[in-house]
Amino acid sequence: MVGTAVSSLFSHWRRNPLQLAMLWLGLALATALWSGVQAINAEARTSYAEAAAALGQDSLSRLVAQDGGAVPIRDYLALRRAGYLVSPVITGEIRDEAGRLRIIGIDPLTAPQEAGAPGLGGNTDLAAFFTAPGLLLMTEATAEGALPAVLPRIVIAEGVPPAAALTDIGTASRLLGQEEPSYLIVAPAQPAGLPPLAEATSLLLVAPETSGDVARLTDSFHLNLTAFGLLSFGVGLFIVHAAIGLAFEQRRATFRTLRALGLPLRSLMIALALEMTLMALIAGGIGIVLGYLVAAALMPGVAATLRGLYGAEVAGGLSFDPQWALSAMGITLLGAGAAAAQAMIRTGRMPLLAPAQPRAWAQASDRAMRRQGLAALAFFGVAVVIGGLGGGLLAGFALLGALLLGAALALPVVLAFALGIFARGARGPFAEWLFADSRQQLPALSLALMALLLALAANVGVSTMVGSFRTTFTGWLDQRLAAELYVSTADEAEGLRLQRFLDDRADAVLPIISAETRLFDLPAEIFGIVDHATYREAWPLLTSAPGAWDAVFAGEAVLVNEQLARRQGLSAGDTVPLAPGLNLPVAGVYSDYGNPSGQAIVGMDLFRTTFPEARADDFAIRVAPEDAPALATALREEFGLPDTAVRNQAQIKRFSLEVFENTFRVTGALNVLTLGVAALALLTSLLTLSSLRLPQVAPVWALGVARGRLARAEVWRLLLLSALTFLLALPVGLVLAWVLLAVVNVEAFGWRLPMQVFPADWLRLLLLALLAAGLAAALPALRLSHMAPARLLQVFSQER
Amino acid sequence: MRILALLLAFLAGPALSQGFAGLGTQAEGFAVPARDPVFDFPADHGAHPAYRIEWWYLTATLTGEDGQDYGVQWTLFRSALAPRTAPGWEAPQLWMGHAGLTTATQHFSAERLGRGGIGQAGVTAMPFEAWIDDWSMRSTARTGEDALSALSLTARGGEFSYALDLNATGPLVFHGDEGYSVKSAEGQASYYYSQPFYEVTGTLSLPGGEVAVTGNAWLDREWSSQPLSESQDGWDWFSLQFADGARMMGFGLRDRAGGVFTSATWIAPDGTETAYGDGALRLTPLALTEVAGRDVPTEWQVELPARGVDIVTRPLNPRSWMNTSFAYWEGPIRFEGSHAGRGYLEMTGYE
Predict the structure, then answer these.
(1) Is B94 close to A119, i.e. CB distance below 8 A?
(2) A130, B94 Cβ separation under 8 angstroms
């Protein structure tokens, strides 16, 4: 019995392949966007976990030098000879024109088991590993990437962090030209009878990074992606809802006939549930494949973003995880169930003897409108409350969610109100009919229009944020990159030679010197700068105390970047512990985009005495702009620096902007996809309506309105509705942008940007929305304009 | 990194493990022991990087002020990946220290690994010191005397440590053919000498507190590049002290086919040695103990008819298991029969 029911139900799809395609497309798109984002997040998190677990960073303490430099070998040996179980690591990056690679050199002989470095088992030639030229262990993905030209033999090994090579400390020492350990790993269990480690050394004992700095920093980025994925999924479900609603409406006659033939309601429901499940499985399968493709296409961009922004290494490739596919399928089934629930319930309640005539969906009732309006108000209220309480990334996203939901619910109310106003101003019966009919159609179209609203609002919001960011960032780069040339030298001797060479050729040579250290127990960098107008005049300070620069150059105060200031709640006058025994007041806060970590600036003299081992290998050179090209040539040809070591301002700006563009490329791609999905939702809804609305349209046609005019009216109406939707989306999008800039970005990146508006972008978006609506309306309108008069006449002849 | 797997692999070298700890692998590029050695002291107390493997191996049978028996082991192994030394981090020479402390009810073991070039581990001949981390065997001999005639010894594990002073009452003893010790019928051999005459005083630190101890100790020095035949997978080694001051060293190298290659040295109280070749010594396991998931023969009948020796050995602690990268059994024993006394037993290659 169920079998017969299923086969007769399925005959509907055979007769309506377009509907079937819509249903599948909607589900597949929803699944694809959601699961694609999930795949990206999962891949990145795996990379972080691997990186965090590398050498047991997540479980083992470390010893580092007080000044952030290398650990002297004699200190290491002194600890070993005192009996402490500590193990040296030499790590650094090698790069050349061909590529770059992080080198992690460990001492497998002393590394504690908990360091869990990957196995050297089986076929690895240990003599080759321990003796020159050594071996490099890396994952296949790393080995296939862009690597420096001259490397020791590569051995493929699992479990090595992305973009890094694990090797013996001896090999690392040779490759990096560094004799002394970068830090020491501390075994969790130390031998009996030794005094505590902290008493035995002047090195700094650093607790394990339990959560992983990188994972914490990038959390917000992934939450961002997830929110977009969820939005896309929601928009996709609108399509599914519309397609399923249509299919159920059109089959009311079939349902009634089946019931009349004696099919129990239960069996009918089971048959329908089976049908939906099958549809969801097929569409979900397609969606998972699409999602994987989307993720694989976006992954390199995501990896570049994460590296550029957070310094987090993420594999550029994507591995297929069955668990991911299963969860995506589960989400699809759930989504399809949610979308079909309403139609199923309606079918379940359908009285056996009810007229099987398809009817346009529920009339717009004032009561339903009021309810929706109240719900919208409630959501706006929630948004205001959350916004008022403020703080935190989750609160930011909750605020966004409440805002978008409220706006979506308010849309039909606002549209009905607007149409009412238009109707009052309408001249002539046709126009009056058109507006009245539009209001009557609103409930049916509103879901699709809501999808459009969400997509448009997200688009406005994100493009406003990105635009604000770009403007601020470009301006900031202009200030920050004030020097005409930037030069890298190989070592200290070359640096000194360079300074002599430039003595009479350049206006000023400013060393760029920094030491890695920890501020407030998080990794941070301290820069030393010389007293020069470049800083006093151009350096972008957000806030500063009077005489800030004088105090800094006198070694009496420190400048901190915005990230550090926000994280620690620092403002001018607060004290920052820079090094043991060195606490300085904050003189000012400077903006520092493109870097999530804390940073501080002190005067050069103070820097030299605090970090005597830091070397300046990079220099900023001030020279008259017109002389810069000649000086660059002289540096390359007369002084003999390699091409890559001399870069002009424009090159560095271009590189910085590239990092920036990469950061938002993924967001942009998701944005466009969401808009596309919304257009599809409109198309589906219109296709549904066009066949259902014949009883409304036929009498107007019979009264003498040409089919062509009717069809054009349909298009115009949808364009009008879309334009109205855009008008509502605009303020919602701007609020969205504000939340992104003032709440989400501050949490995610640690900086706050002034919001700027880009009306030209809005115009483009409006045109885009109208284009999408026009395309969506075109097909049903075309159908109507070519509809055989006989079909329109049938409306009057059919007695059902 | 599974250090265990790593080390098993590293001593085994590129070829798969041959014999216990890869001691049966080929010795390409390394020097090979030759007959009629001429030892040059104190230089030969130091390291021989041209040979693949070498050890400074000390065992002590001790008695505490509490009247209890104790055993102590201190070993430094050198394992060369290439027959050369290198300064800095490069590591053609790897070092491994083992320390053991045995009581009647407990056995503690500890292990240290290190590389030689940076000075974390090594052996210097003049002044003599063998060390890895804070473990040290340092000469305290007066000028003019053999460097090994007096030693100060320390080691520390997770739960124990010890510090001992050793004074030799007899000369060095050379095994086999004047220090050329044959290990198989195919002729594998090592250079092998001992200082079996130490008197010991010192302190053990145990989880329960410190114990002052006195007793005797035995130092083995051995180096080679391929001390075992490829078909040999383990050995049973005895050092015995008799009541009259005589000493005896004996070992049996077990063949995969079931055969045993034995060797023994009888050491008179004045240090005069007599070497006995394959077959003179008979070793018969009497009782097995299950340790670390395997059956290990912890009671033995030891016979050297040429000297009228027919004794049965019993361990102080049948679970004297060295839980190190290459696990093995090493602990103090007492023996009865034709003679009575104390000694040390080492058993390797029981899988």
Answers:
(1) no
(2) yes
